[in-house]
Design a protein that fits this description.
alpha+beta; four-stranded mixed sheet; 4 helices; globular
């Protein structure tokens, strides 16, 4: 069973949403930043950056939501949630996934925090 380390209203939602869409059971471990869970030695051992989301799937431990989603879709999605690796469609999928995570998300967050925070 996939274990998800996350916090409500964070990028962890991407992972749990995908797992729910795929109909997979998962174990959700809340990492409470206010309590310092993200700085606990046990959590830093799985993600030295102290950020969520993180998953463990058997021996595999991963962080970075876009990479986790691609992995889960490849491993458990039966070809429904992501194009096959090595295809032009997958190349475009990866291009837009990385664009949104690397180029689009940060400016939108900056605008949002200045508008709402």
């Amino acid at each position: 069973m996939v274990k998800v380390y996350g916090y409500p209203n964070s990028r962890s939602l991407r992972i749990t949403w995908l797992l729910q869409e795929m109909g997979l059971e998962y174990d959700y471990q809340v990492i409470d930043f206010a309590k310092g869970d993200n700085r606990a030695p046990a959590f830093l051992a799985i993600n030295p950056a102290g950020k969520v989301p993180v998953i463990s799937d058997g021996e595999l431990v991963m962080f970075e939501s876009a990479a986790i989603m691609a992995y889960l879709a490849d491993r458990y999605g039966d070809g429904v949630f992501i194009p096959p690796a090595g295809t032009p469609e997958r190349g475009l999928y990866d291009q837009w996934s990385y664009f949104s995570a690397c180029e689009l998300e940060q400016p939108l967050w900056t605008i949002g925090k200045h508008k709402f925070a």
